[in-house]
Write a structure and sequence with these properties.
The chain contains 6 helices and 7 strands; from the N terminus they run H-H-E-E-H-E-E-H-E-H-H-E-E. The longest helix has 15 residues. Helix 4 packs across helix 6. 25% of the residues lie in helices and 18% in strands. It has 211 residues and is α/β, with parallel strands linked by helices. Strands 3-2-1-4-5-7-6 form a 7-stranded mixed beta sheet, sandwiched between helices.
Protein backbone atom coordinates (compact mmCIF):
# COMPACT_ATOMS: atom_id res chain seq x y z
CA UNK A 1 0.00 0.00 0.00
CA UNK A 2 1.32 3.45 -0.90
CA UNK A 3 1.25 5.37 2.37
CA UNK A 4 -0.33 8.79 2.35
CA UNK A 5 1.29 11.52 4.44
CA UNK A 6 -1.43 11.44 7.10
CA UNK A 7 -1.93 7.69 7.08
CA UNK A 8 -1.79 5.97 10.48
CA UNK A 9 -0.88 2.68 8.84
CA UNK A 10 2.45 0.96 8.33
CA UNK A 11 3.20 -1.82 5.83
CA UNK A 12 3.13 -4.47 8.56
CA UNK A 13 -0.53 -3.66 9.26
CA UNK A 14 -1.39 -5.26 5.94
CA UNK A 15 0.83 -8.31 6.17
CA UNK A 16 -0.76 -11.77 6.18
CA UNK A 17 0.17 -15.22 7.42
CA UNK A 18 -0.02 -16.48 3.83
CA UNK A 19 1.72 -14.08 1.47
CA UNK A 20 1.63 -16.48 -1.48
CA UNK A 21 -0.08 -15.46 -4.72
CA UNK A 22 -3.77 -14.81 -3.99
CA UNK A 23 -4.68 -16.29 -7.37
CA UNK A 24 -3.53 -19.66 -6.08
CA UNK A 25 -5.67 -19.42 -2.95
CA UNK A 26 -8.78 -18.45 -4.89
CA UNK A 27 -8.20 -20.85 -7.80
CA UNK A 28 -10.60 -23.41 -6.32
CA UNK A 29 -14.22 -22.16 -6.35
CA UNK A 30 -15.94 -21.98 -2.96
CA UNK A 31 -19.66 -22.22 -3.68
CA UNK A 32 -20.64 -21.75 -0.04
CA UNK A 33 -21.99 -18.82 1.94
CA UNK A 34 -19.71 -17.25 4.54
CA UNK A 35 -22.46 -16.01 6.89
CA UNK A 36 -25.68 -17.74 7.95
CA UNK A 37 -29.12 -17.21 6.43
CA UNK A 38 -30.25 -14.67 9.03
CA UNK A 39 -27.16 -12.52 8.49
CA UNK A 40 -27.58 -12.82 4.71
CA UNK A 41 -31.17 -11.58 5.05
CA UNK A 42 -29.97 -8.66 7.18
CA UNK A 43 -27.40 -7.71 4.53
CA UNK A 44 -30.06 -7.88 1.83
CA UNK A 45 -32.41 -5.61 3.82
CA UNK A 46 -29.57 -3.17 4.38
CA UNK A 47 -28.68 -3.02 0.69
CA UNK A 48 -32.35 -2.67 -0.22
CA UNK A 49 -32.57 0.60 1.69
CA UNK A 50 -29.40 2.02 0.15
CA UNK A 51 -29.04 1.02 -3.48
CA UNK A 52 -31.10 2.95 -6.02
CA UNK A 53 -33.63 1.05 -8.09
CA UNK A 54 -32.72 1.03 -11.79
CA UNK A 55 -29.16 1.94 -10.82
CA UNK A 56 -25.96 0.36 -12.03
CA UNK A 57 -24.33 -1.47 -9.11
CA UNK A 58 -20.77 -2.66 -8.49
CA UNK A 59 -20.41 -5.79 -6.37
CA UNK A 60 -16.73 -5.63 -5.41
CA UNK A 61 -14.94 -8.78 -4.24
CA UNK A 62 -17.93 -10.70 -5.53
CA UNK A 63 -18.50 -14.45 -5.63
CA UNK A 64 -21.30 -16.82 -6.60
CA UNK A 65 -24.01 -14.88 -4.72
CA UNK A 66 -24.39 -11.12 -4.21
CA UNK A 67 -27.03 -10.89 -1.42
CA UNK A 68 -28.77 -8.09 -3.33
CA UNK A 69 -32.54 -7.63 -2.88
CA UNK A 70 -34.48 -9.78 -5.33
CA UNK A 71 -37.42 -7.38 -5.48
CA UNK A 72 -35.32 -4.45 -6.69
CA UNK A 73 -34.57 -4.22 -10.40
CA UNK A 74 -31.17 -2.77 -11.20
CA UNK A 75 -30.06 -1.54 -14.60
CA UNK A 76 -26.98 -3.74 -14.25
CA UNK A 77 -24.84 -5.49 -11.63
CA UNK A 78 -21.11 -5.81 -12.26
CA UNK A 79 -19.28 -8.37 -10.17
CA UNK A 80 -15.51 -8.10 -9.70
CA UNK A 81 -13.92 -11.08 -7.98
CA UNK A 82 -11.08 -13.58 -7.98
CA UNK A 83 -12.68 -16.77 -9.30
CA UNK A 84 -14.21 -17.05 -12.77
CA UNK A 85 -16.35 -20.08 -11.90
CA UNK A 86 -17.84 -18.38 -8.85
CA UNK A 87 -18.72 -15.28 -10.86
CA UNK A 88 -20.23 -17.40 -13.64
CA UNK A 89 -22.52 -19.07 -11.09
CA UNK A 90 -23.86 -15.71 -9.89
CA UNK A 91 -27.08 -15.24 -11.84
CA UNK A 92 -27.57 -11.72 -10.50
CA UNK A 93 -24.53 -10.38 -12.33
CA UNK A 94 -24.86 -8.80 -15.76
CA UNK A 95 -21.09 -8.27 -16.10
CA UNK A 96 -18.24 -10.32 -14.63
CA UNK A 97 -14.62 -9.21 -14.15
CA UNK A 98 -11.80 -11.34 -12.71
CA UNK A 99 -9.32 -8.98 -11.08
CA UNK A 100 -6.86 -9.15 -8.17
CA UNK A 101 -7.17 -5.91 -6.18
CA UNK A 102 -4.16 -6.71 -4.01
CA UNK A 103 -2.00 -6.99 -7.09
CA UNK A 104 -3.55 -3.99 -8.85
CA UNK A 105 -5.97 -1.75 -6.89
CA UNK A 106 -7.07 0.15 -10.00
CA UNK A 107 -10.58 -0.63 -11.23
CA UNK A 108 -11.12 -1.30 -14.96
CA UNK A 109 -14.12 1.01 -15.23
CA UNK A 110 -14.75 4.56 -16.43
CA UNK A 111 -15.21 7.49 -14.07
CA UNK A 112 -18.70 7.86 -12.57
CA UNK A 113 -19.89 4.52 -13.98
CA UNK A 114 -21.91 3.27 -10.99
CA UNK A 115 -24.87 4.40 -8.88
CA UNK A 116 -23.81 2.33 -5.87
CA UNK A 117 -21.31 -0.27 -4.71
CA UNK A 118 -21.11 -2.99 -2.07
CA UNK A 119 -18.32 -5.00 -0.46
CA UNK A 120 -19.77 -7.98 1.37
CA UNK A 121 -17.83 -9.76 4.17
CA UNK A 122 -14.55 -9.48 2.24
CA UNK A 123 -12.99 -6.18 3.29
CA UNK A 124 -10.55 -7.97 5.64
CA UNK A 125 -8.56 -9.32 2.69
CA UNK A 126 -7.56 -5.99 1.09
CA UNK A 127 -3.87 -5.17 1.44
CA UNK A 128 -4.15 -1.76 -0.28
CA UNK A 129 -7.54 -0.56 0.96
CA UNK A 130 -7.12 3.22 0.74
CA UNK A 131 -6.11 2.88 -2.92
CA UNK A 132 -9.09 0.64 -3.64
CA UNK A 133 -11.46 3.06 -1.86
CA UNK A 134 -10.03 5.94 -3.88
CA UNK A 135 -10.75 3.96 -7.03
CA UNK A 136 -14.27 3.22 -5.82
CA UNK A 137 -14.77 6.93 -5.36
CA UNK A 138 -13.58 7.50 -8.90
CA UNK A 139 -15.98 5.01 -10.50
CA UNK A 140 -19.01 6.01 -8.40
CA UNK A 141 -21.26 8.90 -9.34
CA UNK A 142 -21.48 11.87 -6.96
CA UNK A 143 -23.59 11.04 -3.87
CA UNK A 144 -23.60 7.33 -4.73
CA UNK A 145 -23.33 5.03 -1.68
CA UNK A 146 -20.55 2.57 -0.93
CA UNK A 147 -21.76 -0.02 1.61
CA UNK A 148 -19.29 -2.33 3.36
CA UNK A 149 -20.66 -5.20 5.45
CA UNK A 150 -18.59 -7.48 7.68
CA UNK A 151 -18.93 -10.23 10.24
CA UNK A 152 -16.52 -12.16 12.47
CA UNK A 153 -15.83 -14.81 9.84
CA UNK A 154 -12.63 -14.91 7.78
CA UNK A 155 -9.91 -17.00 6.22
CA UNK A 156 -7.31 -16.23 8.91
CA UNK A 157 -4.29 -16.89 6.72
CA UNK A 158 -5.42 -14.26 4.20
CA UNK A 159 -6.92 -11.59 6.47
CA UNK A 160 -4.57 -8.66 7.08
CA UNK A 161 -2.87 -8.24 10.45
CA UNK A 162 -4.63 -5.02 11.44
CA UNK A 163 -8.05 -6.64 10.94
CA UNK A 164 -7.16 -9.61 13.10
CA UNK A 165 -5.85 -7.35 15.88
CA UNK A 166 -9.16 -5.46 16.27
CA UNK A 167 -12.63 -6.20 17.61
CA UNK A 168 -15.95 -5.70 15.80
CA UNK A 169 -16.41 -2.09 16.95
CA UNK A 170 -12.84 -1.21 16.00
CA UNK A 171 -13.40 -2.75 12.57
CA UNK A 172 -15.97 -0.02 11.88
CA UNK A 173 -13.35 2.62 12.79
CA UNK A 174 -10.84 0.89 10.52
CA UNK A 175 -13.20 0.94 7.55
CA UNK A 176 -14.00 4.56 8.35
CA UNK A 177 -10.28 5.29 8.10
CA UNK A 178 -10.19 3.68 4.66
CA UNK A 179 -13.01 6.00 3.55
CA UNK A 180 -11.26 9.08 4.95
CA UNK A 181 -7.84 8.24 3.51
CA UNK A 182 -9.32 7.81 0.05
CA UNK A 183 -10.28 11.49 0.05
CA UNK A 184 -13.37 10.81 -2.03
CA UNK A 185 -16.19 10.15 0.45
CA UNK A 186 -18.28 12.01 2.98
CA UNK A 187 -18.54 11.07 6.64
CA UNK A 188 -18.95 7.30 7.12
CA UNK A 189 -21.79 5.92 9.22
CA UNK A 190 -21.59 2.60 11.12
CA UNK A 191 -24.51 0.22 11.73
CA UNK A 192 -25.04 -2.89 13.85
CA UNK A 193 -27.13 -5.14 11.58
CA UNK A 194 -26.83 -8.28 13.71
CA UNK A 195 -30.07 -10.31 13.58
CA UNK A 196 -29.70 -11.72 17.11
CA UNK A 197 -27.72 -13.98 19.42
CA UNK A 198 -28.55 -17.14 17.46
CA UNK A 199 -27.13 -15.74 14.22
CA UNK A 200 -23.79 -14.59 12.89
CA UNK A 201 -23.12 -10.94 13.75
CA UNK A 202 -23.27 -8.44 10.92
CA UNK A 203 -22.18 -4.81 10.73
CA UNK A 204 -22.16 -2.16 8.05
CA UNK A 205 -20.28 1.04 7.26
CA UNK A 206 -21.58 3.38 4.57
CA UNK A 207 -20.38 6.63 3.04
CA UNK A 208 -21.39 8.53 -0.07
CA UNK A 209 -19.22 9.80 -2.89
CA UNK A 210 -18.42 13.46 -2.51
CA UNK A 211 -19.79 15.86 -5.16
Amino acid sequence: MEQQEDSPFRPEHFQRVDESDDALFYAVPRLVTHIDDQAIAAATRFYSGLLPEDGKILDLMSSWVSHLPEGVRFRGVTGLGMNEEELAANARLTERVVHDLNLDPSLPFDDASFDGAVVTVSIQYLTRPAEVFAELGRVLKPAAPLAVTYSNRMFPTKAVAVWQALNDADHAELIGAYFRLSGRFGRPQAYDLSPGPSSDPLYGVVARRLP
